[in-house]
Amino acid sequence: MAIVREKGAMRQWSRSQRQCGQRIALVPTMGFLHQGHLSLVAEARLRADKVVVSIYVNPGQFAPGEDLDVYPRDFDSDVEKLKPLGVDIIFNPHDLYVRESPEKNGESGHETWIRVENLEKSLCGGSRPLFFRGVATVVSKLLNIVEPDVVVFGKKDYQQWRVLARMVRDLDFGVEVIGCPLVREADGLAMSSRNVRLTATERKNALAIFHSLKRAEELVRSGETDSSVLIEQAVTAISNAGGKVDYASIVDQETLKSVDKITKPSVFAIAAWFEAHTSKRWRIFPGQTIA
């Protein structure tokens, strides 16, 4: 397993592998890897001859005042976790953005962004209007640099997966997009790098999200189809546990448009904030498919 930091070297490696007939898979991450990430690597291993894992905390998807500076990082631990999984390359670039440079005749900084105009508007896009712009742009850069045959994402960030799949389709990237199921802890909490920022009490309280999703699933199986009823019980449960709900929406799996009545498999997407000991609030947003 090699660690590559330069864009040119990464691209050269990929092209040399493809010339030899090798199929390449990319797993984009921001590091601080957990079992959810590792399950994506395992899926990538099944779908390609060579596996690249990118580790890059993307500043383009953080708005001012968000947690870029304190986003959890542990590169050495990430390397150790990836060693036994058959990863060929860790792509860990210093910076993927061109910065303004007065020394180079006032060369301007990065100013090109990708928007997926409709899919990005709802859910996370409501309170984070620049988030998907940053995500789509950095993933397009990774796809252009690594030039993979397949890219693997997790469905915990369900809207992100849909946004990126649409970007790949609309811009004719020659890459297959794979979405893998959300991975949960034994008690049901969705695995997330940010969970480490929660205190023991906050982590316990955050389980209200999982329990409210399971309760919604039970209600649907017993015949309830009114989305407002399912949403109300979830918001009440999470609020009673000390969470601040950003959104709770039942949406169409493809369009992400809200559905009033559940007549086919839909996604119940929830984002909630729980106070952390650092005085910041950490967002937990597992989605659940309900039939």
Topology:
Elements: E1 2-4, H1 7-19, E2 24-29, H2 35-47, E3 50-55, H3 75-82, E4 89-91, H4 124-127, H5 131-146, E5 150-154, H6 158-170, E6 176-180, H7 200-221, H8 227-240, E7 244-252, E8 266-275, E9 281-284, E10 287-290
Parallel strand pairs: 1-4, 2-3, 2-5, 3-4, 5-6
Antiparallel strand pairs: 7-8, 8-9, 8-10
Question: Can you describe what's shown?
Answer:
This protein has 291 residues and is an alpha/beta fold. It has eight helices and ten strands. It has helices at residues 7-19, 35-47, 75-82, 124-127, 131-146, 158-170, 200-221, 227-240; strands at residues 2-4, 24-29, 50-55, 89-91, 150-154, 176-180, 244-252, 266-275, 281-284, 287-290. Strands 1-4-3-2-5-6 form a six-stranded parallel beta sheet, sandwiched between helices. Strands 7, 8, 9 and 10 form a four-stranded antiparallel beta sheet that branches. Helix 2 (35-47) links the parallel strand 2 and strand 3 (50-55). The longest helix has 22 residues, at 200-221. Residues 277-291 have low confidence and may be disordered.
Element-level helix/strand string: EHEHEHEHHEHEHHEEEE
The stretches of 5 or more residues where confidence is low (pLDDT under 50) are: 277-291
* SS field, number of helical segments: 8
The average pLDDT is: 92
**Rg, Cα atoms, Å:** 20 Å
Which structural class best describes the helix and strand composition? Answer: alpha/beta
Shape: globular
Major sheet description:
6 strands, parallel
- Which strand order spans the largest sheet, edge to edge or round the barrel? 1-4-3-2-5-6
Cα distance spanning the termini: 42 Å
Strand content: 15-25%
Instruction: Give the oligomer, counting copies of the same chain as homo and different chains as hetero.
Output: single chain
Extended strand count: 10
Helical amount: 25-40%
